[in-house]
Design a protein that fits this description.
By secondary structure, the chain is of the alpha+beta class. It contains one helix and eleven strands, in the order H-E-E-E-E-E-E-E-E-E-E-E. The strands form three sheets. Strands 2, 3, 4, 6 and 9 form a five-stranded mixed β-sheet that branches. Strands 1-10-11-5 form a four-stranded mixed β-sheet, with no helix packed on it. Strands 7-8 form a two-stranded antiparallel ribbon.
Amino acid sequence: MNILGGKKGILIIVIATVLIIVAILFFGILPNMNKKEPVPEDQGPISETRKPVPDDAAVLEVGDTTSNEEVAVPVSVAPAAPGVEAKLRTFNISADRGVFTPSEVTVNKGDTVHINFSAKDKEYDMVLPDYGMKQIANLGETKIFEFQATDTGKFAYYCELCGGLASPAVGYIIVK
């Protein structure tokens, strides 16, 4: 007497073996075939307008001094809300003669960035594509450019009216 029941038993063994092989492929090998390298936490894709945070980036406080006039020192720093570490950091940036001055702002992740953006000699715009923002200031105007720094990176902003990233009117907001 055959324990597995002859041909019926062999068929059951073949089907079970096929199901086990399919399960191994489906749950083990196949998911790993298309696996991409993980992107570090909040470090979205590196692109033309987003780079890694430079190692030497420093978040300045009111009254700090720097020998580099391209680095913005905040005009005010205040708690963003009661009981949180995040700060509201206010900066003044002017556009004049085709450049932004100062052109580099450094903040901490979670901070609210408030920029008073002034156009000194003609109309300028300030475009920050990674945060989906654009502001236009006419000659002599000051506009507010404000957002919460939710992702880390070195984000380029530029004047689209001046020629975009190819123009000298390019700056960076570094979020540590």
